[in-house]
TrEMBL record:
InterPro entries: Cyt_c-like_dom (IPR009056), Cyt_c-like_dom_sf (IPR036909), Cyt_c_BACSU-c550-type (IPR012218), Cyt_C_IC (IPR008168), Cytochrome_c550/c551-like (IPR051811)
Domain Cytochrome c: from-to ranges: 43-118
Gene3D superfamilies, per the entry: Cytochrome c-like domain
Protein's recorded name: Cytochrome c-550
Encoding gene per record: cccA
């Protein structure tokens, strides 16, 4: 009787393992999800400025000189627009995510504007 129970449990575990192998995302899918792709847009400096004033100055200062968050005045010298887009969209450390507050195009516009700050 115990042999039947053990073989049944082993069979169920085997079936579950097979199901998981075919349903879990692969490395490529996980990497793609972790690194968002920035949409192609044309920079609109006025719109980026308005978005920054509405969302960023409380942590980064009115001149982006840094307060709670880091100084962003020359951030384009160290980070690309794609990197900035990923940080703004997904958040990083104490930086909150903005994917629920801003459209992808707005995030991309801010990332392009910040990337020019060198």
């Amino acid at each position: 009787m115990q042999k039947w129970i053990m073989s049944g449990l082993l069979g169920v575990a085997f079936i579950m393992a097979i199901v998981l192998i075919f349903t879990l995302p692969g490395k490529e899918e996980v990497a793609k999800e972790a690194k968002p792709t920035m949409p192609e847009i044309t920079l609109n400096a006025d719109q980026a400025d308005a978005i920054i004033k509405a969302n960023c100055i409380s942590c980064h200062g009115d001149q982006l000189q840094g307060q709670v968050g880091p100084n962003l005045q020359k951030i384009g010298a160290t980070l690309s627009a794609d990197q900035l887009y990923g940080i703004i969209k997904k958040g990083k450390g104490q930086m909150p995510t903005f994917q629920d507050r801003l459209k992808d195009e707005e995030i991309a516009n801010v990332a392009l504007w910040l990337a020019e700050q060198k």
